[in-house]
Amino acid sequence: MTLLLHTNDQDIQRAADILAKGGVVAFPTETVYGIGADATKSEPVDKVFAAKKRPHDNPLIVTVSDDQMLRRFAKLDQRAEKLIAHFWPGSLTLILPLLDDEILPSNVTAGLSTAAFRNPKSQVTRNLISLFNNPIVGPSANLSTKPSTTTAAHVMHDMAGRIDAVIDDGPSQIGVESTIVDLSVPDATILRPGAVTADEIAAVIGEKVIDPSSPITVAKGVAPKAPGMKYRHYAPSKEVIIFQAEDAEQLKTVLKPSDAVLALTDILAKFDLPEERSWSLGQNADSAAEELFSALRAFDDRDSVQRIYVQGLAKKGIGEAYMNRLEKSAGGQHFHLE
Measured by CB atoms within 10 angstroms of the end CB, which terminus of the chain is less buried, N or C? Predict the structure, then answer.
């Protein structure tokens, strides 16, 4: 049975005790919910892979309570020091060289000499890690390839009976995973876009940041440095197709009764669909990012919906992270009226 815990001191201590016994606990962050276990021991980490049905060559983010815990495991250069001072705790994950290749289990690092580290904004989660006094792995708390979880209810949907406990701290505020920047290379490189943009990172470190416009992929047989680089991600079982705002009127003419639409409020109004086939993404990219995974999950559970059309947005600011997740959910499919 999976326990549903709350944010009081007693429940947080209970969660820390579960971790100390080698258990697995899902925890809140400002981006999405994570699934945690002792990052210093291979056996608890294996339980995370099993719970998520996740490939073992996909490395895990290591979640720390503060920068002092980070320094026990990683080498920090001036860029890392500046980014930590500016963005931590927060939605930025840093890929850093390890102090020792064997300081973390190989199932955390995928056998690499680097690891991805994050210090989330959630005080609840930082308190949990402080009580446990060791870092915890922190992949998103969903079944592998499925949309990430932004509420405890989402976590229970995927993980009930598969993990020991879930800490419920309400919905995540941002809704897409943290930005991942690789600092193990000479030029800082974005491996996964998120709420922290390449321009913001460059302004802090005073150097250029490589921000590939197309998704970075990894060859078969090669371990990726960060999550989300090698395998299908964020995808519901239903077909997802991206459409642009200017194509809304054309799309309306070909919609079937089993089609659903996700769009910004003003665009959604053009479709005049019943509630069970429509979902507002709010007024802008910020609200769209927050709503995306919840909406995909909701329609995935509706038998009456077979296809989901989702509005594409400009790749600016958090819109870049939104489109990164949406492109992967859709497998690159876009609406074009023939």
Answer: C
Q: Report whether 234 belongs to an annotated binding site.
A: yes
Tell whether 126 is in a known binding site. no
pTM of the model: 0.90
Conformation bin of residue 37: beta by default, left when phi > 0, alpha when psi is -120 to 50: beta
Q: Where are the domains of the chain?
A: 3-205, 239-330
91 marked as part of a ligand binding site? no
Q: 31 a known binding residue?
A: yes
Q: Binding site annotation covers 58? A: yes
The Cα 249–Cα 271 span in angstroms is 8
CATH code reported for the domain at 239-330: 3.40.50.11030
Check whether 307 is labelled as a binding-site residue: no
Q: What is the DSSP string of 164-200?
A: SEEE-----SS-SPPEEEE-SSSS-EEEE--SS-HHH
Domain 3-205: give its CATH code: 3.90.870.10
Q: Is 140 annotated as a binding residue?
A: yes
pLDDT in tens, 294-333: 999 999 999 999 999 999 999 999 999 999 999 999 998 9
